[in-house]
Sequence to fold (182 residues):
Amino acid sequence: MTPSQITVIRSKRRKKTIQSKYGDGRLWIYLPAGMSTRDEQKWIDRMIERNERSQQKRTLKKSDTWLQQHAQELNKEYFEGALNFSIMFVTNQNSRFGSCTSIDKTIRISQRVKTMPSWVQDYIIIHELTHLLHPDHSKNFWEKVNQFKYAERAKGYLIAVDTITVDQEKELNDEDDIFYDK
Fold:
């Protein structure tokens, strides 16, 4: 967001509360008039970040419809449409690309996956769908995942992405690692 899209309104009546509103491509930030310049900048940065997260979540909700439809297509192609599940993009997965809770049949895909090539997205979705049949990383699990023709290529891509970010994120636990056959 550029500075020209942000309007800061200082109010003498406002004593403690800080508020922001977004509309028409602009962000309005309401601050108490007596706030120090340093505190003011801290709050402006915080409100910009909060607004960006909020916009990101709205975008993800729109993307969830595409994700649900695409996952159903993969379900039909690789699982004869036998799986029932819910799937969504999430913003709080920074050390994994996807996760599955087989008990309630919920699949979460990291928002980072949205920018990856389609064959990598497909691999991650198939990997998580397979967890609905095989909650572990057993031989049967990997046989099913490896039916996807780009499985090995996608694993290599994900290893490379993870290697680049390993210094910034904690390493994945081997049990939760979606990259390696066990």
About this structure: The chain has two domains: 3-56, 60-176. Confidence is low (pLDDT under 50) at residues 166-182.
